[in-house]
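Lab notebook, bench 4. We co-purified these components, and the gel suggests they stay together. Before we commit to crystallization screens, I want a quick structural picture of the whole thing.
Request: model the full complex, all chains together.
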Amino acid sequence: MSEWCICSVFALQKVSIIIVIFACVVCKYIIYLSEVQLNETLAHLKTESETLKSKLEEERAKLHDVELHQVAEKVEGLGQFVMKTRRTLKGHGNKVLCMDWCKDKRRIVSSSQDGKVIVWDAFTTNKEHAVTMPCTWVMACAYAPSGCAVACGGLDNKCSVYPLSLDKNENLAAKKKSVAMHTNYLSACSFTNSDMQILTSSGDGTCALWDVESGQLLQSFHGHAADVLCLDLAPSETGNTFVSGGCDKKANVWDMRSGQCIQSFETHESDINSVRYYPSGDAFASGSDDATCRLYDLRADREVAIYSKESIIFGVSSVDFSLSGRLLFGGYNDYTINVWDVLKGTRVSILFGHENRVSTLRVSPDGTAFCTGSWDHTLRIWA
Amino acid sequence: MKIEDIVTRIQDETEGVPIRTVKSFMTKIPSVVTGTDIVQWLIKDLSIEDPAEAMHMGSLIAAQGYFFPISDHVLSLKDDGTFYRFQAPYFWPSNCWEPENTDYAIYLCKRTMQNKTRLELADYEAENLARLQRAFSRKWEFIYMQAEAQVKIDRKRDKSERKILDSQERAFWDVHRPVVSRCLYTLPTSSDSFNHYGCSITYETISCCSVRKPAETNSDSSCFLFQILFLNTQLDRHRMKMSKVAESLITYTEQYMEYDPFVTAPEPSNPWTSDDPSFWDLEASKEPSQQRVKKWGFSLEEALKDPAGQELFLKFLESEFSSENLRFWLAVQDLKRMPQQEVGQRAQDIWAEFLAEGAPSSINLDSHSYERTSQNLKDPGRYSYEDAQDHIYKLMKSDSYTRFLRSNVYQDLLMARKKVCVSMFVINQRLSFVYIPIF
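Here is the predicted assembly.
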């Protein structure tokens, strides 16, 4: 604009020059004013947002007439648990980052930092398939509901699906199908009710739903302000929702059909590393770097329980419920597994065994055991 | 940071462990505490019930170098009279140390200059020094000068102060350039300071995986507007009272506890503990157990989730000539699972089968849902039948499902009533008639 003013100065006479110079100054002043207005608007919006947030917390607190553990006092206490490592799966050459169970209740797929994805029959501890991914740090892997394929991804920003062949000699990598494409690392992936769709979460702050066959993006979910680290699908056959947790300390519940965020919870004090639905689908648990696990109920729309102890100071990497939802298993960065009584809020048991941080934990589909993967290169089955 | 709170508290003069100077043969050992003292303090301060837990916690703190054994390079905790010293806050991991190899070289060089038996290099340190000398051959003069300067400064310090500082510096390097042999407790990266996927501190390099971004505060006005909109809708949401929610959670859990293998031992045994897979074989068999049949009575969802339950419910509906509802529901579930390419065609097929004029399996939809669905079909998609499916599900739940639970087919299975074979009964009757005249 100032250049234009200079040009016109040459074309006009003295009086005009004065007018033009004055106009320049006015322009700058207008820009200055609109900037001030923008800042004021931003500040105003920010205060409005903060006010609404505190109002929402007030509304949520109004219905908080009792604590879960108080009501649970009438529930019979759990006896002593004897949980031991029943199988140790050795074979990964580096940190195990993720694992998932097959619906047949005995097979699992695991992925590690060195790029290897292995399918095991955990019952016999035999390795059935192995794939080497072209990238290192395979942070996510999932078993397809049919048991005929596995999905995995990580630093390659992609999620790839490998159909599992019964022929041992066939090179699995040849049949690989690239499904999801993100702009940052893939942190978690999960098949929906069928082999045909995959839900992914990424370090680029978004989650996405993909069609496996065509690789088409069906829906994307925006709302997290930082990396999304975990997700879990609602267990209901009729439901279409999932929950995600991220580095912005928020856990968001999403509608898969519209891509909208339905509910949001922000009570953790650090990154949320893991989220898992309670078996009825009415609540979910989260595990965070702030060394606590928390239970959020969707109907009450708030945090209803917190599972923590003074002596637990290392972050939770992974959580899962037992079949009835009575027990919550948490894998921690201090190499231990803590077992919590969900209703009473107390710790039932602490399990030692891994020699490095527990990075992933999943309960088997029929609840007979749970599997943990660790940075000590091994996976353990506990029952 | 939680771990540093603990380390600060443990050194507190009144509330912490007794740190003292111990007299030894011809010399004094300043500022030490025993392993047992540390373990006992952890148990007391953090209300730990199990001493194993306290040992574990202590070992993790030691592995990060917050305290160290004065006469060893191995960073672990022993519950006995071994002496430990606390690390200076200057060297704490939270200061985000990433010491370079040049620093390490200067340090090792300095050690060789000090000419004291207690400061003699260990074998692995001597190896490291040799390797560094080869790597930094051109820079070595510079490194040597730095080391000399540090030695000069050190000489000026008080003797016991020097002992303490030397040991702290050595412990620092034990953390960042550890003995290569595998320790039981390798370095855990604690919550705040390191990035999410961990740094692997190897001798040569520090290779970090993708660093997580800190939560960005959205300063964009559109983000604020979006947030305000979201918060407003949230405020209007209907919420349930906590007491009701708690009751609901407790009821659900208690109902399913008999099915939870961690709470109630499965019959005949948990395959993982007994190495016997018969539990799985039984579950897969055509004959569902009584317990499994009972679960179908919990909710329509449970009945449909189990393939055997679904089959029985379908058979029941067929006997009532109302199976089109369930078949429609199942077809829509299938539609949602299809690959994107096939969705359009399948949606049309469903319309033709269940909803069109004169459809072979016509379902009963209220006019509102019917209108909505036919509108959706103009651009057929995976969720075109959501309304209709919801309506039909509610119908089945309130009507057919309740009758199913009261029906003979279900009750028979539930009570495990043995079906008497009619033909056998008749033959028995006939036989009894045959015998009577003889008597």
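The CA atoms of residues 19 and 84 of chain A lie 87 Å apart. Worth comparing against the SEC data before the next meeting. The two ends of chain A are 74 Å apart (CA to CA).
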